[in-house]
Amino acid sequence: MRILLLSDTHLPVRARELQPQVWRLVDEAELVIHAGDWVDVATLDALQARARRLIGVAGNNDGPELWARLGEVARVEVEGVRIAVIHETGAAAGREVRCDARFGPSSDAPADVLVFGHSHIPWASTTPGGVRLLNPGSPTDRRRQPVGTVMTLEVEDGAVRSVELVPTPR
User: 64 preceded by cis ω (within 30°)?
Assistant: First the structure.
């Protein structure tokens, strides 16, 4: 299964719309995961209308309507891979330990992959407990990165097959 990971779109504050390249990736994905900071309800509505399947959470820049529709944490299992989604995981220092405690094998609801956002900085690591941590960055607000980014994730038969960071230049 091909999954598109998005976060921190911040529409229409940081950009007026998602780039055509991102919409093509939405069309190609079997599942789109958005890790928060949509900012605009219209972005959620547009992705829900276009994506085959959409999972998302609200972020710290999202208003009450987005929080009511999405919440803080989402979980989905696809191809035997348990995926959790949250916007914020805290500072980079100690992230793996914190995420293991909340989403690792000894937690109440373990995940194999945790998708998060907030920093706008791409991140890919694995916790000591084996949870893959993935932050796709932001397609529209690159901050200190050379270009905006998203990620694609492929899972099959209970395993992550590939993770790719995809640049999204304007």
Answer: no
